[in-house]
Design goal:
alpha/beta; 60s Ribosomal Protein L30, Chain: A; Alpha/beta knot; 2 domains; 6-stranded parallel β-sheet; 10 strands; 33% helix
Length: 249
């Protein structure tokens, strides 16, 4: 049986303040938890109903069976799943030496959890190991981001820092690409296999302070000729196109 204190503690992890204070986050759903079990994350507790089958490869975790009613009490979902895991925050640091040898995404105040989770998933798909987020970006370990990442949060390193300071330190060491409405056509611009790709805020794009460090401005051209179309792309959609073109080269 799960205690009232446990219920209160698990529910508190829906709040960013308590996640950060305790260094713990929650993941819910059979597929998501299965995927995360295959990663390098450290599981604190796994709560499950009798319907969920403990995977053979992960028998040494701290499991606790609960009733469907108890699962409803600790779940943050409208329709609770059969399993909920409490997981420790990974301790990721921004290591410049590691970034110099790879392609890295830099997110300048991406605030929508769904967008951030999708971008983490995209990074995993395109073999990008690191994402550097501004301090004003959404919390990568919020329930919505974790859910949208579809397990990629266990394979992609997401770190937070002051982006202008970070770019100032790395200035001149590698190209810094950014997406702008008045940038050069990405399909005709020379792209390096290693560098930083900056994606801006959903409403205001890349901030002026960060723009100063961009060495190559890119644009995704609009192919809808002779008719009205949307003014811009969703930042996660744009990230997919940008990453695809870098990897295609």
């Amino acid at each position: 049986m799960i205690t009232a204190q446990q219920v209160k503690f698990i529910k508190s992890l829906q709040n960013k303040k308590f996640r950060h204070e305790n260094g713990l986050f929650v993941a819910e759903g059979e597929k998501l938890v299965y995927d995360l079990l295959d990663g390098s994350l450290c599981f604190r507790n796994v709560y499950h109903t009798s319907e969920w089958e403990i995977p053979t490869r992960a028998r040494n975790r701290n499991y606790q069976q609960v009733s469907p009613k108890e699962m409803e009490r600790i779940s943050g979902l409208v329709n609770p799943s059969t399993v909920l895991a409490v997981i420790e925050y990974p301790n990721y640091e921004v290591k410049h030496s590691e970034l110099l040898e790879s392609l890295t995404l830099v997110l300048d105040d991406i605030q929508d959890p769904g967008n951030l989770g999708t971008i983490i998933r995209l990074a995993d798909w395109f073999g990008i190991d690191n994402i550097v987020c501004s301090l004003g970006s959404a919390d990568a370990f919020s329930p919505k981001v974790v859910q949208a990442s579809m397990g990629a949060i266990s394979r992609v390193k997401v770190a937070y820092c002051n982006i202008p300071d970070f770019l100032r330190e790395i200035k001149g060491a590698m190209p810094v690409y950014g997406t702008f409405m008045d940038g050069s056509d990405i399909y005709t611009t020379s792209l390096k296999p290693k560098g930083l790709i900056v994606m801006g805020n959903e409403g205001s794009g890349i901030s002026r302070e960060v723009e100063l460090f961009i060495t190559s401005k890119l644009r995704i051209p609009n192919f809808a000729k002779n008719r009205e179309s949307v003014e811009s792309l969703n930042v996660a959609m744009a990230t997919a196109i940008i990453c695809s073109e870098f990897r295609r080269r």
